[in-house]
Recover the amino acids of this structure.
């Protein structure tokens, strides 16, 4: 990322962001896929055609690639480097409402280690190799060259944003960018997996159950699609709806190991289009697991 300096930090510590559209075009010209963020620093919601991923858009990993919708749909998967798309009428309307610019690190060949506070920064300075550093409102982004699966809360105050995620653009940063180290990849390995729960204890499976009773593709697909629709159609109490939906999915599929990262990504994407942050999604998923004793 060799963008021009488009950000400054004032004497009071407040980060001053530039106009979103010029920033987005500058980033796209350097090969970094961008998308606008609305109030709350979250992606714009899917349009009616794309609601619930009924269009088969990118978060539905069975049909990767852009959907036919010209709008800013599908959260991180909407990120683009095409200036014609960025200035098109559907996107132009979004930029007028945008509060800042985000980018898809994985699609740019990058991984962002998001450090939320001073304790996390102090840990990184002793545990990780130096790299490009960008100041955030509460901490720092450490940017490495290379990609991996995104993970939230790999340790207190530390998130990893790369594939299937987005990060706010807060400036070009300082320092030389280093290659993604094994120390960062190891953080994901140390985190308990949210999509591969341990099998239930002996005697808790239904009689005659030797293999997973939910592996019928149609059954699982219908369940995930219904969960996406339930979240997408929520008009009030979105937080509570997301938690209850995650709880329902896990109560049915959480003990047999049939959920994959792609399934969870679809649920998270549906929640994020309703304004939930990645942290909110992860917290809701973790709380649902805890409630069910997984």
């Amino acid at each position: 990322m060799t963008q021009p300096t488009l950000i400054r930090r004032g004497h009071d510590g407040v980060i001053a962001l530039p106009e979103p559209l010029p920033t987005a075009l500058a980033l796209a010209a350097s090969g970094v896929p961008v998308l606008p963020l609305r109030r709350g620093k979250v992606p714009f919601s899917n349009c009616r055609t794309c609601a619930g991923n009924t269009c088969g858009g990118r978060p539905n990993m069975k049909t990767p690639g852009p959907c036919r919708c010209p709008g800013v749909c599908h959260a991180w998967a909407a990120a683009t480097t095409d200036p014609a798309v960025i200035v098109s009428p559907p996107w132009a309307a979004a930029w007028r409402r945008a509060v800042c610019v985000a980018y898809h690190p994985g699609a740019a060949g990058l991984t962002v280690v998001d450090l939320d506070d001073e304790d996390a920064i102090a840990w990184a300075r002793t545990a990780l190799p130096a790299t490009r550093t960008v100041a955030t409102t509460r901490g720092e982004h450490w940017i490495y060259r290379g990609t991996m699966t995104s993970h939230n809360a790999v340790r207190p105050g530390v998130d990893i944003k790369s594939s299937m995620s987005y990060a706010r653009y807060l400036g070009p940063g300082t320092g030389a960018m280093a290659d993604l180290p094994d120390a960062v990849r190891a953080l994901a390995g140390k985190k308990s997996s949210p999509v591969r729960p341990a099998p239930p204890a002996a005697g808790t499976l239904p009689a005659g159950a030797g293999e997973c009773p939910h592996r019928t593709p149609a059954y699982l697909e219908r369940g995930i699609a219904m969960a996406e629709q339930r979240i997408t159609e929520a008009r009030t109490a979105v937080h509570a709806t997301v938690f209850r939906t995650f709880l329902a999915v896990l109560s049915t599929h959480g003990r047999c190991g049939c959920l994959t990262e792609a399934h969870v990504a679809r649920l998270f994407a549906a929640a994020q289009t309703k304004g939930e942050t990645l942290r909110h999604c992860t917290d809701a998923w973790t709380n649902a697991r805890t409630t069910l004793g997984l």
Remarks:
- The longest strand covers residues 110-115.
